[in-house]
């Protein structure tokens, strides 16, 4: 896997780059399993009443959702990896697996998983790449991904490209996991996780190169508040260019930097042992 640079045939191509899809089994003919596809309906950032709740979203290329198995509940049944595929709905690659009874399923592909490999899930499986097992059976210090926060709910943490967490300790019915943000959290040891780190770690180094590629992803141009009128944004208006005259905020005057967004009385606050270090310098550390 790696990044392929475009030939500088235009200004957009000069700065653009794309993944070489070397880890995919058939990158030229990416034909997903039809039985695991469902249509994806676009909302344009609007709720059921047509009100824009998330700005700067809309358009983009048509997509089909791949049904991903985040729970991995088919225990003690080995599955063969048929192919590693590209998924337009996520940054990591996905793997098409087939169980002994013929059932096919999509899972998140860890880094290093290849076609014809074998994966399994359950309490009695070995802690190998791609196997899903409870945290009480995972060796301490091992890299994991697709981690459950509540038993049986399915993986919710570490599902992005190159993402992984580390099981740092275990005591009684609780396991201690260090997340990519630096936060240390305790979870029930019956929660499941998959061994290894996720595929496509070079995703963060890809340069879109032009605004059009951002539109293909369904992202509209982001308009600055200082360029608006006072009726549209608290930072708008003024004679000539201004720096806003106040701390950065949203159109509804909610502070954009430094404000805490987590609820003080959230029940899961007790599960956080060490909070992540805030600020862009510590992101992903």
Automatic annotation (TrEMBL):
The keyword Disulfide bond does not apply. Residues 45-121 form the Large ribosomal subunit protein uL2 RNA-binding domain. Residues 1-45, 217-285 are annotated as: Disordered. SMART domains: Ribosomal_L2, Ribosomal_L2_C. Coiled coil: none annotated. GO terms for biological process: cytoplasmic translation. The keyword ATP-binding does not apply. Residues 259-279 have a biased composition (Basic residues). GO terms for cellular component: large ribosomal subunit. Residues 127-255 form the Large ribosomal subunit protein uL2 C-terminal domain. Part of the 50S ribosomal subunit. Forms a bridge to the 30S subunit in the 70S ribosome. PANTHER family: LARGE RIBOSOMAL SUBUNIT PROTEIN UL2M, RIBOSOMAL PROTEIN L2. One of the primary rRNA binding proteins. Required for association of the 30S and 50S subunits to form the 70S ribosome, for tRNA binding and peptide bond formation. It has been suggested to have peptidyltransferase activity; this is somewhat controversial. Makes several contacts with the 16S rRNA in the 70S ribosome. This is Large ribosomal subunit protein uL2. It comes from Telmatocola sphagniphila. The lineage of its organism: Bacteria, Pseudomonadati, Planctomycetota, Planctomycetia, Gemmatales.
